[in-house]
Amino acid sequence: MISSSDNRFKEGQHVVLTGWGVGETHWGGLSEKACVKADWLVPLPEGISAQQSMMIGTAGLTAMLCVQALQEAGIKPEDGEIVVTGASGGVGSVAITLLAQLGYQAVAVSGRASENGEWLKSLGASRVIDRDELNQPAKPLEKQLWAGAIDTTGSTMLAKVLSQISYGGAVAACGLACGFDLPTTVMPFILRGVRLLGVDSVYAPIEKRQRAWKQIGEVLPESFYRQSCKEIALEDVPAAASDIVDGNVSGRLVVKVQ
Ligand SMILES: NC(=O)c1ccc[n+]([C@@H]2O[C@H](COP(=O)([O-])OP(=O)(O)OC[C@H]3O[C@@H](n4cnc5c(N)ncnc54)[C@H](OP(=O)(O)O)[C@@H]3O)[C@@H](O)[C@H]2O)c1
């Protein structure tokens, strides 16, 4: 923080800004300096540096909000496995790390299971399954496999996951990497009491963000930054963006803007 006209913040304080449309509907997502609304800022908790906050980023915050949604739904480590789709992505890889640190058995679902399996296990995945196992039409109800799920994919994959959630379980859904449709039925909801929990980090209220950043600071291990984050230069951004869309990036890329 260089200066603030809002008395909630002071010079020299470390803050983080994600969401609120910055980089989408507001210019300046990759600028070195920005003048922004104080309402958008979260004071960084102790132990998270400015660089680390961007390694965590929107994806990490969203992953934490998904984990907290499951916790608030009463899903406990002893209830059974938590399945995480889109595991190699930013949200998926942080979610697996956080779940494992909190004592959950996280099962990673990946389209790159052979290429990324060892890395996902090193983050804490108890096992890794191939995306093809879930990326196919679901019956209204299937064998109950998961106590909960964090879904970053939507569409066929989310429908499959819903049909396999155990009685009383919950799914935190935040993404649409597979598609924005949802070809499911009411059966998991009305016969198994399954809950579908929508998660949004972009316009999440400030108290929710503060709670999530605090828990990230407490739970995310130092090893995460080494294992899952790569720094790139500003001029590498267009190529990296294409690589992300083509599914060739794992974990998090941080842009060095200076
Ligand atoms: N609700 C919110 O506030 C919020 C916030 C952040 C992100 N999101 C959304 O959450 C999703 C994940 O974000 P992210 O930052 O983790 O993205 P990402 O880094 O691009 O990761 C997405 C992952 O999904 C998997 N995937 C890619 N194409 C797929 C397909 N056609 N079918 C099934 N899986 C596919 C890949 O993992 P594998 O190769 O391991 O399968 C990929 O690494 C995105 O849809 C994003 O828009 C929502």
Describe this structure in a few short sentences.
The protein contains 8 helices and 10 strands. The chain is an alpha/beta fold. The protein is globular and about 55 Å long.
Sequence stretches where pLDDT stays below 50 over 5 or more residues: none
Task: State the domain count.
Answer: 2
Q: What do we call the CATH homologous superfamily of the largest domain? A: NAD(P)-binding Rossmann-like Domain
Question: How much is the average pLDDT?
Answer: 96
Name the shape in a single word: globular
Structural class: alpha/beta
Bound molecules: NADP nicotinamide-adenine-dinucleotide phosphate
Examine the coordinates and then state which fold CATH places here, giving the name of the CATH topology of the largest domain: Rossmann fold
Share in β-strands? 15-25%
According to DSSP, the number of beta strands is 10
Radius of gyration: 18 Å
Strand order of the largest sheet: 5-4-3-6-7-8
Could you describe the 3D structure shown?
The protein is α/β, with parallel strands linked by helices. The protein has helices at residues 50-72, 90-101, 113-123, 155-164, 187-192, 206-219, 222-228, 237-245, and strands at 15-16, 42-43, 82-84, 106-110, 125-130, 146-151, 165-173, 195-198, 229-233, 252-256. The longest helix has 23 residues, at 50-72. The two termini are 16 Å apart. Bound molecules: NADP nicotinamide-adenine-dinucleotide phosphate. Residues 58-59, 62, 86-92, 110-112, 131, 152-153, 157, 174-178, 199-202, 244, 247 line the site of NADP nicotinamide-adenine-dinucleotide phosphate (NAP).
